[in-house]
Amino acid sequence: MARTPSSQVFTVSQLNQRARQLLEVSFASVRVEGEISNLSRPSSGHWYFTLKDNAAQVRCAMFRSRVAGIRFAVKEGDKVEIRAKVSLYENRGDYQLIVDAMKPAGEGALQLAFEQLKSRLAAEGLFAAGHKQPLPMVRRVALITSPSGAAIHDMLTVLKRRDPAIAVDIYPTQVQGSDASGQIVAAINRANRDQQADVIILGRGGGSLEDLWCFNEETVARALFASRLPVISAVGHETDVTIADFVADVRAPTPSAAAELISRDQQVQQQRLLQLQQRLQHNWQQRLRYQQHQLHTLFRRLRTPQQQLNSAAQALDQLEIRLHNAWRHQQQQRQQRLQYLHQVLQHQHPSRTLQQYQQQLQQLQQRLHQGMHQQLGQRKQQLGQQLHLLNNLSPLQVLSRGYSLTTSSAGQVLDNAAAATPGSRVHTRLNQGWLECEVIQAHADN
């Protein structure tokens, strides 16, 4: 029995492939603004990063061929606007954006210069409402624009349709490029010198900020401010804004609108134009939807070699990133192990044991010094006591009390008078000094 689509069983690869095809068809080109984080630049030249805002984030891949077109330095935290298609990295099943182009979000260099000049001229009063001239009844208009652009065709068509009686003087100039601003200033001055037109229309079609830059030059702004004829600025589309729009007496959203502004209104033709515009828009939208459907059908069937190569390159980059992270983790572990072994070695180093022994030796030396000092004190105290005792027992101590000591010439102590014979010489030791005597007579006690 054949399976119905709802009961079909997919493999994971088939499911991811089908999901990728649906995403790439449904979101073939989107513009997204956010902040760059987790920026990775592998050696392949591809970029991988996360685009985030305050509430969500999405992974992005930008391949080397697209990276080469970036003309500004990209770093973590930058706010950017990208053009990308929504896809799915089949190997992991991750939803991601494949980035085709990137530019800084917000003001670029030209936009910054525009704002700075705008602020300076506004401070000088060039935009003040008091300097604006009212539009008169127009019988003759001076068109300053490119003679080959769409703007002059649109303005002439509108004037012819709405008010063919208005005379037109064309002052052809360049409206893009380095020479354009000088030609525009010359045309404004010439129209004022001719004094034939009632009003000036300065116009051109839409374009980028760079394309319209000649209308942001200071020389053009000052020529418009000095013009004696009222000036209508009709540069670009309705969303385009230039310095000329602020200085001019009147700003028209488009060149066609400027022509309508100076011509008399015809309700019927306006209504008809609106109907034609709606029909054209409706037919264009129908045609566009049909072409998109055809394109999506063909795109579903086609997976280009470049896409396969990009997927393989992305897988290789992911492996390279994993290898780099693993190597870095291993290096960190080895570094930690080396630090641990170094600490163990320092703890067991002979100098540590030698230091302990030196401390013990110092303690023993201190104890020996203290013991010797204590023993010497005790010995001194004992010696003093012995000296005191010896001094008390010394014959000299007895002599100090008035006694004397008599010895024979041979040095024998005489303690009996009978030991001394008359005529012999004896020595008598006194407390102080001694006497040498001759025995005249000896008297012995019975």
UniProtKB/TrEMBL annotation:
Q: Which domain of life is it from?
A: Bacteria
Enzyme type, top EC level: hydrolase
Q: Where is the OB-fold nucleic acid binding domain?
A: 10-102
User: What EC numbers are recorded for this enzyme?
Assistant: 3.1.11.6
**Reaction(s) the record says it catalyses:** Exonucleolytic cleavage in either 5'- to 3'- or 3'- to 5'-direction to yield nucleoside 5'-phosphates
- Short name of any one Pfam family annotated for the protein: Exonuc_VII_L
Does the keyword section mention Cytoplasm? yes
Query: Which ranges carry the Exonuclease VII large subunit C-terminal domain?
Result: 126-438
Q: What is its main location?
A: cytoplasm
Alphabetic keyword roster: Cytoplasm, Exonuclease, Hydrolase, Nuclease
- InterPro entries per record: Exonuc_VII_L (IPR003753), Exonuc_VII_lsu_C (IPR020579), OB-fold_nuc-bd_dom (IPR025824)
Q: Does the keyword Cytoplasm apply?
A: yes
Q: Which molecular-function annotation in GO is an example for this chain?
A: exodeoxyribonuclease VII activity
> Where does the record say this protein resides?
Cytoplasm
> How does this protein assemble?
Heterooligomer composed of large and small subunits.
The record's section on NCBIfam families has: xseA
Concerning its family, UniProt says: Belongs to the XseA family.
Q: What does this protein do?
A: Bidirectionally degrades single-stranded DNA into large acid-insoluble oligonucleotides, which are then degraded further into small acid-soluble oligonucleotides.
Q: What is this protein called?
A: Exodeoxyribonuclease 7 large subunit
Tell me what organism the protein belongs to.
Bacterioplanoides pacificum
